[in-house]
Amino acid sequence: MPLWLARGSDISAAGCLWIAVFSVCVGYVFHKTGSLWTCIGIHALNNLMPGN
Predict the structure, then answer these.
(1) How far, in Å, CA of 48 to CA of 8, rounded?
(2) CA triplet 35, 52, 23: central angle to 5 degrees?
(3) CA–CA distance from 40 to each of 1, 11, 18, 22 (Å)?
(4) What CA–CA distance (Å, rounded) separates 17 from 36?
(5) Could you tell me the mean pLDDT of each successive run of 10 residues in the chain, 52 residues long?
(6) Could you give the angle at the alpha carbon of 40 between the alpha carbons of 18 and 50, nearest 5°?
(7) 8 Å CB contact between 33 and 40
(8) H or E element: which one contains 17?
(9) Cα separation of 32 and 8, whole Å?
(10) Would you say 33 and 20 are in contact if contact means Cβ atoms under 8 Å apart?
(11) Residue 41: how many other CB atoms lie within 10 Å
């Protein structure tokens, strides 16, 4: 469950934009590498960033 949803917050327009950009970037990485593990690593690093 996303942290913003668990806190009972609504997602902002900036949050939607970040999710869209992040998704496209991770999709591009998967397309180029063919490795789901790379995408999992990127997602894990994103989850470790402050504010997430």
Answers:
(1) 21
(2) 35
(3) 16, 23, 17, 13
(4) 23
(5) 73 84 96 97 91 63
(6) 50
(7) no
(8) helix 13-33
(9) 37
(10) no
(11) 12
Q: Quote the tokens at residue 38.
A: 């790379």
Q: Residue 23, Cα to own-chain centre: how many angstroms?
A: 6
Q: Which residue is listed with tokens 């869209």?
A: 20
22: its two tokens:
């992040």
Tokens 């970037």 belong to residue: 25
Output the pLDDT for position 28.
98
Angle of helix 36-48 versus helix 13-33 axis, rounded to 10: 150
Predicted local confidence at residue 52, as pLDDT: 58
